Fold:
Amino acid sequence: MPATVVSPDRRLLNFLRFLCLATILGLLQTGQFYFAIRQDGGGLPWIKAAGLQMPFWWGWALLGPVIGWTTRHWASERFSWWMRAAIHLGLAICFSTFHSVATMALQHLFNLHPRAAFDFEMFAMNAVYQLSNNLLAYGAVVGLVYSTDFYRRYRERELVASQLSAQLAKAQLHALRMQLNPHFLFNAMNTIAMQVRRAANDDAVRMLAGLSDLLRYMLEDGRPTEVTLRDELTFIERYLAIEQVRFQDRLRVTFAADPDTLEAIVPTLILQPIVENAIRHGISRRSQAGQIMVRASRLGGDLILQVEDDGPGMSPGVTPDPGTGVGLRNTCARLAQLYGSGQSFILTEAAEGGALATIRMPYRSGREDVALVS
Structure:
C-alpha cells in the first residue's frame, strides 16, 4: 500500500470517528461486564466496571493514528506479502505489549485494578492473557486502515476518471466540430458562389449570414457538452436552412418534437452528423425531391430522437460500427461516454423506404444557460 497523504482535518475527523466507535464498543462491553458481575452476586460499581473495560478500547483508539502511520510507511506494497506479514506480526507484539503496560498503569493510577501491587509477574500474566485480544484489535485497526485507504484511492481514481471523461467528451466534441467545419464550409461556399454567378445576391447574403451564425456557434470556446433539445433543434433548423438553399427544391424538412421533450438535455451537435448522413446518403442520391423528418418523443424515462429520410435506404438491422464513418462513429462514442449502457444508437430501414436513425438516451430535464448565438 503506497503512502497516502491525508490532510490534517481529515486525520482529525478519522480519529474522532474511530474514538467514537471505540467508546460505543467499550460501553457495550462495560454494560455486559457490569451485569454479569451483578448476576454472580457481586457489587461492582459502574464507574469501576468502566475503568476496567474502557482503557482497552480507548487505548487502541489512541494507538490507531500511530498504527496507521507505521502501516503506510513500514508495511507498504513495496515489500512482498510475507515481509509485510512479518512486519505486522512484530508491530502487533510491540503494540500489544505497550497497550498492556499502559492499560495496567492507568488502572493502578486510579486504583481500579483488582490487585494493588504492580509487579512483573502480574504484568507478564496480564500481557499473555490479553495477547489474543490485542492481536485481534491490532488486526482490526490495520484492516480499518487498509479499507480506509483503499476507499480513498478508489474515490481519487473515480474523480480522476470523471475528469478524464469530461476532457474526453470535450475532445470528441472538438473533433466533431473540426470534422464538420471544412466539409460543411466547402459545400456552403460553393452554393454561395453559384448564387453570386446567378446574380441571386439576396439569397447569397442570407446564406452568408446564416453560415456566419453557425460557424460562430460551432467554434465558440467554452461551449458545454450538453444543451437543451430546443437549442439543438434550433441549430439543426439553421443548418438545414442552408442545405435547403444548396438543394433548392429537392430537400423538404419536417420537425415533430413533443412539447415535453424540448427542455430535455442532449449532447451538443448530437443530431448534426445524423442529419448530414441522411443528406449525403439519402437526399443527394435521389433525382427527385426528398424529405428528412426529425422526431423527438419520450418513452418512460428515455428520450427518443429519430432522423428519417426517404432515400435509397440500407440493409435492415445494421448498427453503427467503426466502418460506418467518422461522424456516426463519433456519435456512438459520445453517447457511450456520456450515458454508458443507458443509451443506444440504431440504424434501420424506414417503413416506407430510406433509413431511420434512432437514438435512445436517459431523459433529463433542466434548462441550462446555453443559447445559440443569434
